[in-house]
Amino acid sequence: MNQADSWLARHAELTRRYFLKIGLASAPAVTLLPQGVAAIEKVTELEAVIAQLESYLTKQDDFKDVSRGDPIPHSLSAEERQQVGLTQETWSLEVTSDPEHPAELRTPLSQESGTALKWDGLMELAQKHAVRFPKVMTCNNIGCPLGMGIWEGVPLREVIWLTQPKKDLRRIYYYGFHNEKPEQMFRSSLPIGRVLEDPFGLPPVIICYKLNGQFLTPQRGGPVRLVVPEAYGFKSVKWLSHVVLTNLYHANDTYAGGNNDVDSWLKTFAATLSIPKQVKAGEPIPVTGYAQVGISGLAKVQTCLLHDDTPLPSQDRFLTKLPWEDASILGPPKTWGGELPDGELPDSVRGFDPASKRPLHWPMRLSKAHWAKLLPGLPPGEYTFRCRTLDENGIAQPLPRPFDKSGRNSIERVSIEVIA
Ligand SMILES: Nc1nc2c(c(=O)[nH]1)N[C@H]1C(S)=C(S)[C@@H](COP(=O)(O)O)O[C@H]1N2
Ligand SMILES: [Mo]
Predict the structure, then answer these.
(1) pLDDT 10s digits, 112-123
(2) Do 369 and 228 belong together in one domain?
(3) Which of 41, 198, 207, 256 is the most buried (most CB within 10 A)?
(4) Are both 73 and 189 inside the same structural domain?
(5) How much is the pLDDT for 45?
(6) Which residues have CB under 8 Å from 27's CB, separation 6+?
(7) Is the predicted pLDDT of residue 38 greater than 90, yes or no?
(8) What's the gap in Å between 226 CA and the centre of ligand 2?
(9) Judgement on whether residues 206 and 329 belong to the same structural domain of the protein
């Protein structure tokens, strides 16, 4: 990444405020930094690694991809996509009752009756109901988020209501194009209540057609996917083609088969982005990272650097008793990256002030935040660096939900060698 395209350029104001905050005159700096010119050089070094940070939003093409299918639906040629309904002109969505556990609907949306929802119908709904919100897309089974985006779509409930449901409706399940092979179907499900009503001020579950202000690419599930704001990626089914309204009372997600916890909300956790593997004795160590801000928000990022001979406290499985120290959570970036058209956020994004287009709160839930720390210099030896989050309930990572199959959030460890 070149300097002009750097975090520093895009975060000039933020960076200035950050270094005023940790500047030599301020109290924390006294403990953070050695005296004099070397310290200033190290601040510049920290500034340089902050400058190298990833952009806040991820370009559609830079999202990591974990799509299934043989062939993977987005690998089809333009012509094939046209044939199988994976273009805006040919896309359609059926919203019907589950034959095995029927919900009573007056007017299902079906191919058969010619009432399936088409792209134009979706765009018409969008004119009135479109919502946009930030969300980090994370796979339940991968430690690192796949990408951070502003997702746009129509609340799914607008389409559910078109079917005029009457009764016996407890859940929905949904799936997308899967090469017309049942064994390739990737299905997820939700309680109907989550779709009809948004708990705790969460954004709605959407039928999504745009990411970062641009129509979804085939890789990201275009023309249309589902997006569930608070959930891990597997709930956000790509190439969406079918929504089924059901009286079934339990989840029937494909992901349940892989021993996954299919009811898990996004967790809060921290990880490093840049950290030196080897440093000279006595020289402060610049570290940067990101935090995923889960359902319970983010209050703090903390770090701990221990000599490898230091015994870990006993009876402390979750490392709560280590000498944790606060890192600085970086503020909102000046520009957002992610190839937004004209570099501008779309209008009326949830959680942003409509006039200034700046975030109303920071860090934002269900999103990312970046952090930085200048660690004090150390004598030669082998060390282990760790970082963790405290959520807004004051609960330290990996608690309150430490189990892998509901989303990865174990405390990251990085080895650092300090040389003479
Ligand atoms: N149709 C379909 N949708 C899918 C998947 C899939 O394999 N097929 N993978 C899911 C999983 S497990 C994740 S983590 C997310 C990833 O979304 P992304 O590719 O946009 O990053 O897509 C979800 N949607
Ligand atoms: Mo996933």
Answers:
(1) 999 999 999 999
(2) no
(3) 207
(4) yes
(5) 84
(6) none
(7) no
(8) 14
(9) no
